[in-house]
Every structure is written in C-alpha cells, then in structure tokens.
Amino acid sequence: MPAAMASNDAPAITDARCFGGAQEASTVITNLAGVPAMIRIPINVSRPPIVLWHGFGPPDSEQALMTALPLDDVPAIKVYLGLPLFGRRAPAGGKTELVRRQTEDVGLLVFKPIVMGAVDELPAVVRELEQRGCMKAGEKIALFGFSAGAAAVLVSLAEHNVPVSAAVALNPSAGLSASIEAYEHATGRPYAWSRESRALAARTDVAGRSANIATGRPPPALLVLQGSADDVMAQDSLRELDDALRLSYAQAHATGRFKNSVVEGLTHQWANQAGQAEVRRQVADWFDRYP
Fold first, then answer.
1. Nearest to 163 by CA among 207, 129, 187, 209
2. Where are the beta strands (DSSP E) in the chain?
3. CA 178/CA 172 separation, integer angstroms
4. The whole model's pTM is what?
5. What is the C-alpha to C-alpha distance for residues 163 and 5, in angstroms, rounded to an integer?
6. CA-to-CA distance for 37 and 63, rounded, in angstroms?
7. 28-86 pLDDT tens trace
C-alpha cells in the first residue's frame, strides 16, 4: 500500500522501528500487533505518540487520515491505525459485505467489530509501540478519532485500558444508540434491538459514562469538535454528551481540561471541505497545549 507523503518527506519505509534523530521526516508502513498502521515520524520527537483512528466515510483509511491531518507541527510520532473491517482487513466482498452486515444488524455486525474491535486492540498496539522504542513503558499517549473512530476514542477513555493524556473526538458518534439513530435516519429502517445490543449500548453510550472519562489526576484533556454542517450525527445526542462531560469535568475540578468547539461550515466527511484548515489548527493547538 503506497504511503501518502508530504513534499518534504523521505520515502516510506516498511516495518521499521521508531528511531529519533533522523535528518528528515519519514513515514513507516507497518503492522502493530496485527493492526495495519502508518507511522509518521517527525525530525524532532519530544512528546509521546498520538494514535489516530479514521471513520467510515472520508477520510476512511489510515493513509487518507494522514493526508488530511498530518500534524507535522506537533513534535510527536503520529500513529494512524486502520479500523477493523477496513483496508487490508476488509471482509471478502468488500463494501457489499459491509452493506449486508449493516442491513442484517448494524449494531452487532458493524459497530461492535469495528468500534469495540479498535478499543480492544489498543493495549496491544501500545505495547508494541513501547517494544519498538516509539515511547517509554507506561507513558501516556494521546488519541484522535473521527466519527466511528471518535467513538473508539471516547469508549477508550471510559474504559481506561491504556493511559491517555489528551484526546480529540471529531464529529463523534456518542455511542451505539447515536449510531443506530444515524442509521435509522439515513435508511428509514427501524433497528431491531436485542438484549446483546442493548448491553453494548450501555457500555458505549459515553454520556452515561462521562464520570469514568473525567477520572484521573488529572483527567485526560478532551476536545470534542463538531461541524456546524454535520447532518449525520444527531445533535441531541451531542448536546447530551456535552452536558454530561461538562458536569463530570466540573465535579472533578478539571473544567479547563474539557472543551466543546463547533467548526463553522464543517460537514461530517470533513476532509477537503470548508473548515478543514480550522480542524488542523484546533487539533494541533490542543495537543500542543496538553502533551
């Protein structure tokens, strides 16, 4: 798979370790604990890695996300992960199979393996980053996610499977219930809830788990970015998420470590759209402020 590189990048390397002190930025195409990844290594590295997840729509791959959000001004290694069932791990049948899964049970056959699969893979990815010398053992990482990838970020924060210093959720799904609502709105088809899918909703609907997110000394610094022109995710669920997180961060005496920001003109599929430059600026500023 070819790497997407900025004009000043060195040629992509396959399966390399993370070494500092290079004369120019480099891109590594690799697997981390079996997860397809593109690692962007800047010339100067002075902060822990940032792990980034794409979404279902553009950008919908690790390569596309790296192109849309290179974060070259942040002195950290950027680790762009492929979501389960995407890219090199797409099921036989590709998009046709994903549509079939969505029609049969979008909650248990799409949301669960992709979003919860990404959450469950993260600890092993971090361990391999430690083994490759990309970070110190036990060091906190930063997280970024878009849409379904943002849901994985928020659930990861609630579950505390890895230590996280800062995170950004862009146009997030607030959990399974929000994703089901978006699916029903887009298709006009009602979703048949089951006992298993309701249990998954309870685990992933992060407004109800905001207190879990806002724990730690200090809690992870969390920026939620919403596009004013996002017509995919229900605004009611995002307002509920915002209210819950504000309250939980206030109760944790960490009000300044949570922010909700609306980007004017930004659509759900934000890459190459109005507001992309503002997304880049706010994400870089957040990770600069909270390494």
1. 129
2. 13-14, 26-32, 35-41, 47-53, 76-81, 141-146, 164-170, 221-227, 258-263
3. 9
4. 0.92
5. 30
6. 9
7. 999 999 999 999 999 889 999 999 999 998 999 999 999 999 999 999 999 999 999 99
